[in-house]
Design a protein that fits this description.
The complex is a heterodimer of chains A (412) and B (456). By secondary structure, chain A is an alpha/beta fold. Chain A has 2 domains: 264 residues, 3-Layer(aba) Sandwich (Rossmann fold); 86 residues, no CATH class. Chain A contains 16 helices and 14 strands. Chain A is elongated, with a radius of gyration of 26 Å. The two termini of chain B are 14 Å apart. Chain B has 456 residues and is of the alpha/beta class. In chain B, the strands form 3 sheets. In chain B, strands 3-2-1-4-5-6 form a 6-stranded parallel β-sheet, sandwiched between helices. In chain B, helix 1 crosses helix 7 and helix 6 packs across helix 7. Chain B has 2 domains: 297 residues, Crotonobetainyl-coa:carnitine coa-transferase, domain 1 (Rossmann fold, 3-Layer(aba) Sandwich); 89 residues, formyl-coa transferase, domain 3, CATH 3.30.1540.10. Classes of the chains: A alpha/beta (412), B alpha/beta (456). Chains A and B meet through helix 2, helix 5, helix 6, helix 7 and strand 6 of A and helix 2, helix 6, helix 7, strand 6 and helix 8 of B. Strand 14 of chain A pairs antiparallel with strand 6 of chain B, so a sheet runs across the interface.
């Protein structure tokens, strides 16, 4: 399979913030050399670990975000090691880093120092970008969801409950999405001009525009949003849309279509469960009436809540969808492995893991598209797995020279 | 009036995208290309218009044009005339104009685009779609799976019409498989993928995301797929079909949970997960939101997020709180014991933050190297956040008819080929003359006749 990033060489300075971007470049066919500290990327030490035993080669989070990469472990602060990185950058297509502003200049690895490689695209994904009053502040993923506005909109209707940020590195995902936009657009331009450029992406900037209508709502109306349990924040208090099912799950009962077919099926379903209540009243035959009642009253909403409470989650999802109603079941990620639909779409990619003696099904990637060819091809590297090969083959070093570096603790 | 758009500069100058998207996840993707100079032509029904033009509230439960009547300081921009169609109404009449306006979210999702009207239900309209496909580099839509094929526009047909065409369908579940006919909004996809369940307090119902995260992030990933497709087409001369399932995109961000289940048998559906704002992998404490002094405009308390990832940060926090003995207390002396006693630790920190102002806490903690970030509302980000101001993330763009209007900026700063924000979404059918006249070479008479027959 030829990927969209085939033929490119990427040098990635290991960091938890940028590793998803590096992974998608690698899954898209690029050769990605991740430069790690000799003790391993911070991404190797966060867990979860295989059998919950800390081991930099058995960190599952690292496996997920570093498929197919090569690992070059070295102490970048040592001049001998720094020189090796410069040599790799001199012939690379893309340099991906998340270093604090100013750090790379001290090491002689900033964009200006790489001027001899005119085609180099250097993309920095940092907490706040390269400049600004907060650019030296320290952050993590959850801190970004607070500062960027995701938490302000998310949580519970109970005004005493805290705002909530979703688990799973999503601030970093948002930053990575934009760093990939920049890199891909720069590649598009470079195909004509031959010239690279420097790309500065701030995770905070990305998060700050990632709260859907909250910002326009403020800009145009000056409204502040109430948090609502399991559903959209809104300038008004709204009744719940996340409703409990008979089997202890939750449905997201997003309802926008009250047309005749949907309504007929919904009423039949309610009749079966004996929860229709007063909806047989002829006035509900009028689409405009029932829609308006749904938006302003409780009769239709209460009947829907009773219907969901009387049905199991799976039944609710499939029956609603078969009627053209876009309800969703609050699933657990791991439950998707059992869904035939994703198997029919060839979603899982089996990746061999000799460390545990078997293969694991990984998610394919965001898009089904053979022409883009973005999917994991190989497991993540062990720490320093490719150090020797890169030093020998890419940089032409002798076995003795490599041994000397290793003995000095400059590489692993 | 049918303005000729300004010539676009930028990396994607000369790229033309036919945009059949509506709602939220679809429009985001092509909008991101406008920042690089692509010409994005948004197609709306000749007998109606994009429902977000109506949507004066961002609610997913209401499409009624209800101007929000809440106390606020920015009524000026709520004028229904905003982006009103001035010379061409859907019916070709001058009446009813007062009701047709671009609501905030429409102006956000479609700014920088061109707009045409077209009746795709008529045979003449479909012929025009095919001609447009011939002059465009990409087509993007987020209808249900059966819609474009029902127009005769299968991928094979589009590929025949334009072999270099990149076609992206955006849908909840993709265009193949048992669920291809299933309907989805952002919250549906978030629920099904497992993203919603991974947000909330343990033992409580899922908190999910208080906005359609997957309409936003899903749209950004869709925009990425589009530029990837255009890059591939530029390299190979061959177009591509991208079947983008938003749910699958979300699942690809949940790899750690999926693999943890495969390897360790650990499920995300378990009593102690999700952990609120605490950190499980790695286990860290403190790592939480704490109540501060003051409230927002609707009476919700203000909060700050504080985390210590190192021992030095925790000792610094004890110093900032003027409780140095805390770092020596066996209950809190190491990260391991802090995690074991984090309820007690959170109470102590919360007692310290409660009477203090959130930005003061942020400055004090950050000066000592501690992770601290207030839970910022939209107002905080637009009106106060000095970092976003410095980065020009809410540029104010002047328009002769609308005055000075703020926009969300663009977070990719490129040194040689900067991205830019155009400002203002198009009015309904604003660019019919440019698209049908100049791009497709129709005469004024032809255009008039199409309008008379309801095709445009």
């Amino acid at each position: 399979m030829v990927g969209v990033y085939d033929g490119l060489t990427v040098i990635e300075l290991a960091d938890r913030r940028n590793q998803w971007a590096g992974k998608l470049l690698c899954d898209g066919g690029a050769r990605v050399i991740q430069i790690e500290p000799v003790e391993g990327s911070p991404g190797r030490w966060c867990g979860p670990f295989v059998d919950d035993e800390p081991d930099p080669d058995r960190c599952i989070d690292y496996w997920s975000y570093n498929t197919g990469k090569e690992s070059l472990a070295l102490d970048i602060s040592r001049p001998a090691a720094g020189t090796l990185v410069k040599k790799l950058l001199a012939r690379a297509d893309i340099f991906l880093d998340s270093a604090s502003p100013g750090t790379l200049a001290e090491l002689g690895l900033d964009y200006a120092s790489m001027a001899s490689n005119q085609g180099l695209i250097h993309a920095s994904l940092t907490d706040f970008g390269q400049d600004g009053p907060w650019c030296d502040y320290v952050m993590n993923d959850a801190a970004h969801l607070a500062l960027g506005g995701q938490m302000a909109s998310s949580g519970y209707s109970d005004p005493k409950a805290p705002p909530i940020g979703g688990q799973g590195h999503h601030a970093w995902h948002m930053g990575c999405a934009f760093v990939l936009h920049g890199i891909t657009v720069a590649l598009f331009e470079r195909a004509s001009s031959g010239a690279g450029q420097y790309i500065d992406v701030s995770i905070h900037d990305a998060c700050a525009m990632g709260t859907e209508a909250a910002v326009p709502q403020w800009m145009y109306y000056g409204s502040t949003m109430y948090r609502h349990t399991g559903m959209h924040a809104n300038p008004r208090r709204l009744p719940p849309l996340q409703l409990p099912t008979a089997d202890g799950n939750y449905m997201i009962a997003v309802m926008q279509n009250f047309g005749p077919r949907v309504w007929k099926n919904l009423i039949e379903w309610m009749d079966e469960k004996g929860v229709t209540g007063e909806l047989h009243d002829p006035k509900y035959q009028d689409e405009a009436y029932r829609m308006s009642e749904y938006r302003t009253g409780n009769v239709v909403r209460d009947a829907i809540a009773r219907l969901i409470a009387a049905s199991d989650g799976e039944e609710c999802f499939h029956r609603a969808q078969s009627h053209g109603i876009s309800w969703g079941l609050v699933n657990a990620a791991e439950e998707n492995y059992d869904v035939p639909h994703y198997q029919q779409r060839d979603y899982w990619r089996s990746i061999e893991h000799p460390e545990i003696g078997r293969s694991i099904p990984y998610p394919r990637g965001p898009f089904a598209c053979d022409a883009l060819g973005i999917e994991p091809r190989r497991r993540a590297p062990a720490l320093g797995e490719n150090t020797k090969a890169i030093l020998a083959h890419d940089l032409g070093m002798s076995a003795d020279a490599i041994s000397a570096l290793r003995a000095a603790g400059a590489v692993r | 009036m049918s303005a000729r758009p300004n010539a676009r500069s930028g990396v994607l100058s000369g790229i033309r995208v036919l945009d059949f998207t509506w709602k939220t996840v679809g429009p985001w993707a092509p909008r991101l290309l406008t920042h690089y100079g692509a010409e994005v032509i948004h197609v709306e029904r000749a007998d109606g218009w994009d429902s977000h033009r109506y949507n004066a509230t961002p609610s997913i439960v209401s499409d009624d044009p209800q101007p929000v009547d809440l106390p606020g300081t920015k009524k000026a921009h709520a004028d229904p005339q905003f982006n009103t169609l001035r010379e061409e109404s859907p019916t070709g009449q001058a009446t009813g104009q007062q009701e047709l306006y671009s609501a905030p979210y429409f102006n956000t999702l479609h700014h920088g685009k061109l707009a045409i009207s077209l009746n795709t239900k008529s045979p003449e309209g479909l012929k025009i779609v095919e001609r447009l496909i011939g002059v465009c580099d990409a087509v993007v839509e987020n209808f249900s799976a059966e819609v474009l094929p029902s127009w005769g526009l299968t991928w094979e047909r589009m590929h025949t019409l334009n072999p270099r065409l990149v076609y992206m369908s955006t849908s909840g579940f993709g265009h193949t498989g048992d669920w291809k006919g299933y309907r989805s909004f952002g919250p549906t996809a978030a629920a099904q993928s497992g993203i919603s369940l991974a947000s909330g307090l343990p033992g409580k119902p899922p908190a999910g995301w208080g906005f359609s995260y997957l309409d936003v992030m899903g749209g950004w990933m869709g925009g990425l797929a589009l530029v990837q497709g255009l890059l591939q087409a530029k390299k190979t001369g061959e177009g591509a079909y991208i079947d983008y399932s938003v749910t699958e995109g979300a699942m690809s961000m949940l790899g750690t949970y999926l693999l943890d289940y495969q390897v360790n048998g650990r499920r995300t559906r378990r009593p102690d997960f999700p952990p609120g704002n605490r950190s499980v992998f790695p286990a860290l404490a403190p790592h939480n939101t704490y109540r501060c002094a003051g409230q927002d405009r609707v009476g919700q308390d203000w909060w700050i997020f504080i985390a210590c990832e190192t021992q030095a940060q925790f000792e610094a926090l004890c110093g900032v709180m003027e409780q140095p003995a805390l770092a020596l207390d066996p209950k809190f002396a190491t990260n391991e014991t802090r995690v074991a006693n984090q309820d007690a630790l959170d109470t102590i920190i919360g007692r310290w933050t409660r009477p203090r102002r959130r930005y003061d806490i942020m400055r004090q903690c950050q000066a000592a190297g501690i992770i601290a970030a207030p839970v910022q509302s939209a107002e905080d980000r637009v009106e106060y956040d000095p970092q976003l101001q410095h980065r020009q993330m809410h540029p104010i763009i002047h328009h002769p008819e609308l005055g000075d209007v703020p926009y969300e900026g663009y977070p990719v700063k490129m040194s040689r080929t900067p991205a830019f924000v155009h400002g203002r979404a198009p009015t309904f059918a604003e660019h019919n003359h440019y698209v049908y006249g100049e791009l497709l070479g129709m005469s004024d008479e032809e255009i008039h006749s199409l309008r008379e027959s309801g095709v445009i």
